[in-house]
Fold this sequence. Notes:
Elements: H1 11-14, H2 17-25, H3 30-40, E1 45-52, E2 57-62, H4 73-81, H5 84-92, E3 98-99, H6 100-103, H7 106-111, H8 113-122, E4 126-135, E5 138-146, H9 155-194, E6 198-202, E7 208-211, H10 213-221, E8 225-228, E9 231-234, H11 237-254, E10 265-269, E11 272-282, E12 295-301, H12 309-316, H13 320-330, H14 335-342, H15 346-360, H16 365-374
Antiparallel strand pairs: 1-2, 1-5, 3-4, 4-5, 6-7, 6-12, 8-9, 10-11, 11-12
Amino acid sequence: xxxxxxxxxxxxVCGLIGDLYDAALDAAQWPDxxxxxxxxxxxxxxxxxxxxxxxxxxxxxxxxxxxxxxRDRAWAEDWHRKxxxxxxxxxFGLSRTVTSDELVTPAEQERSGFYQEWLRHLxxxxxxxxxxxxxxxxxxxxxxxxxxGAGPYASAERRQFELVREHLQRALRLxxxxxxxxxxxxxxxxxxxxxxxGVISADPTCRIVHASAMAxxxxxxxxxxxxxxxxxxxxxxxxxxxLRSLVRATTDLALGEMTGPVxxxxxxxxxxxxxxxxxAPVRPSACVLGEQRPACLIFIRDPQAxxxxxxxxxxxxxxxxxxxxAAALGSGHSxxxxxxxxxxxxxxxxxxxxxxxxxxxxxxxxxxxxxxxRSVATGHSGR
Length: 383
């Protein structure tokens, strides 16, 4: 068998395909990827950027020779936005490979400000590139460049570029979808951390998958709760058995195996009101890459959790003293207890109460206590 020693043009960039997908997941890799792309395509420079319909521009990656000093950053960004080749490529057709010769004549290019003020400064004359849809509000731009003496891009190089273009667009779409999922996940975790209720996600064996900030605080401050070998643990054996039973029943419910209503669990504490644990099922998500097990959300509420005084003051525009009185009221203390704790007369506390009623739009002590206890001003930040 006679084997040709000639390397197929497409093989020069095949090694970059995996790097495109890696960079779509980790933006810090784009500079290295575009540098390798420049070498594979015999190009002096490469640029990959996102341009918004509002004129915004985000540079994902470029070769070192396109990086300008900080003092020239605004000038460079302005020419990135006024890119003549991008304007012509949009008119030519999105997601189509184009060369500079197809977009503008050499004479027209050299007369343009784009060439006089930008391309000539960078030593760029020939280009092969693509403009493609990215989001509803932006487009992606990939451009490879050469100086005049290197000559235009040939048909074999065009095939190489189209292979890169196809995988680049696919990688960016994948990266965008994963970024959206990651953003939603981060928002959900942040929301859990802002709740005044502790939230624990556990598997059917009570192993903790995730614990919110308040849940960690409650685990740290309450000896009746704990973590043993990564699993949620209640000190009282009877309660621990009940916890395991409820978690199993809840995860069975997540699988559609109805085992009766899931109940809450009261966890007694010495000299304090009991903690309340409630359970909710989390159905497993469909995934062909691995088994997704059902989970159980465990909500832990402390009826005596302190109120975030600073947030309370900001929310209702209270003074420092009014905030302290309001927090004590919301925590269930009586007027007499508050007066004794602050070392003031009962009449003084009643005066503050009247002002609090006016600022909160309530009319009776019971109303303001209910409002304060349930308002968004309660939370772990006041601990």
